[in-house]
Amino acid sequence: MTVPDMPADLEAATARVKELSDRVIDQAKQNGLTWLEGYEKVLESLLTLEEQAAKGSGLDWANTLASTHANFVRETSQVFFDAMSKQLKA
Question: What is the superkingdom listed in this entry's lineage (predicted)?
Fold first, then answer.
């Protein structure tokens, strides 16, 4: 990016600011992806625990309720996770 009559030191400073800005954005995206993947794993662990606890209760209705809830959360959160991943990878 060259602007007519822009001093060389100002042009160099502008280039450094742009480079730093790009690096900050890239790092923020990477951190966002890492956080999102971690959150997805924690959510899956909690849902698995919910299902196992319901199975251990010996109550069919509790098992059905927990499985239905866990599947609902998995399916809806997957849409969210996929959309956020696409945004962060763009």
Answer: Bacteria
